[in-house]
């Protein structure tokens, strides 16, 4: 009798288990709504950086298009004085919001090759990658060499441009980029090259180029078409909590100069 009882319990348990499994699959299908619960997405840092870069580039293009529409409408309505319009164009060239062309140099920086990283497991990983200070050193040297205009990753660099390192990517104007990093400058090529050669920071970088094969390449460019800066020019200043800034007083308010 005991043997028959165990068999009957087993026969009753199998359909119950199958029923539970069926309910589980049905619930999963409903939750997924016909899609894969683990879709094949590129969740690596490189993939996220590229996705964010594309999204930012799209927004920048939209912003630039809207700005051009505003300027065109203002011109059509004659709301800008001709002298003021010329003054704005001159300032736009100096600020970097106008495309420019000319000859110059392109400096390309790269991380150490994978085989070098693999063959040097005991070496500090920071020595094998390009950092923000390396890019800044090149940018500063090119400015010191008399560069008329400069871009990083084909994005125009202006006076308020900040270069930040986040993980193994570099953030420029709020957008992350992965190596190789291309810094392009328009100007006298001999002066630009001389400034690079005389920079003590770049000499230090070249020590790592020799030791760990970091990428450092300088290319002469006979014709460079550099885009205008298309981001916002609005600035926000930092304030000290609890400190009230004394408002400035105009001369007219005090009764004279």
From TrEMBL:
The record's InterPro entries line, in alphabetical order, gives: DUF881
List keywords of the entry alphabetically: Signal
Entry's Gene Ontology cellular component terms = plasma membrane
Which Pfam families did the record assign?
A: DUF881 (PF05949)
**Keyword Signal in record:** yes
* Membrane-spanning intervals of the chain: none
**Record keyword Methyltransferase present:** no
Position of the signal peptide: 1-31
Query: What's the domain of life for this entry?
Result: Bacteria
Q: Which family does it belong to?
A: Belongs to the UPF0749 family.
Listed PANTHER family: CONSERVED MEMBRANE PROTEIN-RELATED, UPF0749 PROTEIN RV1825
* Name under which the protein is recorded: DUF881 domain-containing protein
């Amino acid at each position: 009798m005991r043997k028959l009882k165990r068999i009957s319990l087993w026969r009753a348990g199998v359909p119950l288990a199958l029923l539970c499994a069926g309910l589980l699959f049905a619930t999963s299908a409903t939750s997924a709504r016909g899609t894969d619960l683990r879709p094949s997405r590129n969740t690596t840092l490189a993939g996220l950086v590229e996705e964010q870069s594309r999204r930012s580039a799209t927004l920048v293009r939209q912003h630039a298009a809207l700005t051009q529409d505003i300027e065109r409408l203002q011109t059509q309505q004659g709301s800008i004085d001709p002298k003021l319009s010329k003054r704005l164009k001159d300032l736009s060239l100096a600020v970097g919001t106008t495309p420019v062309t000319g000859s110059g140099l392109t400096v390309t920086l790269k991380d150490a090759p994978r085989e070098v990283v693999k063959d040097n497991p005991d070496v500090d990983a920071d020595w094998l990658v390009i950092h923000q200070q390396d890019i800044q050193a090149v940018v500063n040297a090119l400015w010191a060499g008399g560069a008329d205009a400069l871009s990083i990753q084909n994005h125009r660099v202006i006076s308020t441009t900040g270069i930040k390192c986040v993980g193994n990517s570099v953030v420029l104007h709020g957008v992350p980029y992965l190596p190789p990093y291309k810094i392009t400058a328009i100007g006298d090529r001999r002066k630009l090259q001389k400034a690079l050669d005389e920079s003590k920071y770049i000499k230090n970088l070249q020590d790592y180029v020799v030791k760990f094969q970091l990428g450092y390449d300088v290319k002469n460019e006979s014709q460079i078409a550099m885009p205008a800066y298309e981001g916002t020019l609005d600035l926000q200043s930092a304030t000290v909590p609890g400190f009230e800034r004394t408002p400035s007083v105009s001369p007219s308010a005090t009764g004279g100069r």
